[in-house]
Amino acid sequence: MNLFLELRRHGKLAEKRNPMYEKSRFAKFWGYFMGIFGAGYLMFFGTMFAFAFDGGAVEPYHVLNAGFIFIMILDFLMRFPFQKTPTQEVKPYLLLPVRRNRLIDFLLIRSGLNGFNLIWLFFFAPFALFTITKFYGFSGLLSYCIGTWLLMVFNNYWFLLCRTLLSERIWWVLLPVVVYGLIGVGLFVPEESPLFDLSVDLGEGFIHGNPLTFLGMLLAICLMWLINRSLMQRLIYSELNKVEDTTVQVKRVSEYKFLDRYGEIGEYIRLELKMLLRNKITKSSLITITCVVLAFSSVLSFTDVYDGAGMKSFIQIYNYVVFGILFLSPLMSYEGNYIDGLMSRKESIYNLLRAKYLLYAAAIIIPLILMIPAMVMGKLTPLSCIAWAIFTAGCIYFGLFQLAVYNTSTTNLNMKMTNRNNVGTGMQNLISMFALGIPLILGIVLPLLIGDTAANWVLLLIGVAFIATNKLWLKNIYLRFMARRYKNMEGFRNSRQR
Asked: Minimal CA–CA distance to 423: which of 30, 9, 14?
């Protein structure tokens, strides 16, 4: 227990002593504000569902309990942008007389007690207050909330397992895809699926405080704990001891000769392509997010699950914005590994920014192509897809490129499990949140004010304006970066992995 408290204290001190702590206070304020807003949103939906499901053939909590799996899938997806694997704290303690197993146990305990696992209680507690207390009193409410919390703790460890495996081999993305695919088949193929009944029984066990139900949940959590513990111990040992796979041979090396005609900008585009397609971390991220976009587009195109106007708009915006958020949020952080060489040449940073913008603006065609089935099936209109593509490449990328001025933390391209610097700063999280939030608001407000067609044309014109003036605002970003270059370079040097 003393070790747990001491390491927890060290974690808080490390956060306060981080060079980005003072710079991220404003971003953290907005993060807390949005967290409170999200909690209120969940409370609203929990209350609304309690009354919406009331008056049916079955009790409202039976309907919600039958949908546990869908909430767990949504929770699983929500964790990707916000939750990292909890192994970044191991490395500083390996030279101390502390067993590695105990360190990993501490990290897993901290992950299980993370406040993220309590978020869904803002949804379940109001729902249970209006539906369960009238039959089972506050004891039923309390036991139901504890049971749903345990369900999210189990989902937390399941997510950690998948995220850890994904960081090693991108093909492990098939694990959650296959698991959720089999669950989907089990839910919808039989006319009367036993999985729905099992989910309802699980919720009933939570409400009644059934000891066997809680014991089963605890055993499932312990099993997932042991799997994560064994896996993390093996991977951390391999990484820290630099155990590399020497059997891999490069069969084909592309030099992208067609970029030679574009001079220095072409060289920077070549450098960015090599980083994206050859480095294990960025390549895995690219493949993962492409699979996610493809999955969303396929579900939208060939099922009726997301036929609502709101979900169509969300998926369309998400598919475009997520690429930029993933690869432009750490803008200049990868270059922090060799920033001294870039600064030795006049205006090389400006050409680097132009090369990045040209590459990522052209890459918008990837989600556009992946959404062609949705356009063919009539779920999305070609005008809306093109409008959001142009708006993303213009306006949204304009906002994300501002991070080139404020990012001062180097992202290490080799370390994965034990790298503490690969965690987004408050400013990155704030701008990324606005990059997704503002388009979602526009996607709702503009059609209500001026209609769908006019809204698409407005978005198209705004995007074209930002694209046409990209040299002007990139030059402004370059000048602001150079005005604080020494401060940024100091941050990049201090945050390099040693």
From this structure: 14
How many other β-carbons are positioned within 10 Å of the β-carbon of residue 155?
20
* CA 251 to chain CA mean position, Å: 33
* Angstrom distance (rounded) from CA 93 to CA 104: 11
Name the pTM for this structure. 0.63
* Structure-token match 């809680």, residue found: 214
Averages of pLDDT over runs of 10 residues in the chain (498 residues) are: 68 61 57 75 86 76 86 84 65 67 78 85 90 87 92 91 80 84 81 84 90 93 90 71 50 67 86 82 79 82 75 84 84 82 79 91 89 86 91 91 85 58 56 79 86 90 94 92 86 73
> Any long-range contacts for 398-402 (C-beta under 8 Å, 24+ apart)?
398/466, 398/470, 398/473, 399/431, 399/434, 399/435, 400/324, 400/325, 400/328, 400/329, 400/331, 400/431, 400/432, 400/435, 401/328, 401/331, 401/353, 401/356, 401/357, 401/473, 401/474, 401/477, 402/431, 402/477
Question: Cα–Cα distance between 256 and 274 in angstroms, integer?
Answer: 9
Backbone dihedral angles phi then psi of residue 347, each to the nearest 5 degrees: 60, 20
Close Cβ partners of 144 (under 8 Å, ≥ 6 residues apart): 61, 124, 128, 132, 203, 206, 207
Structural contact between residues 318 and 393, judged by C-beta atoms closer than 8 angstroms: no
Q: Give me 374's structure tokens.
A: 């949705």
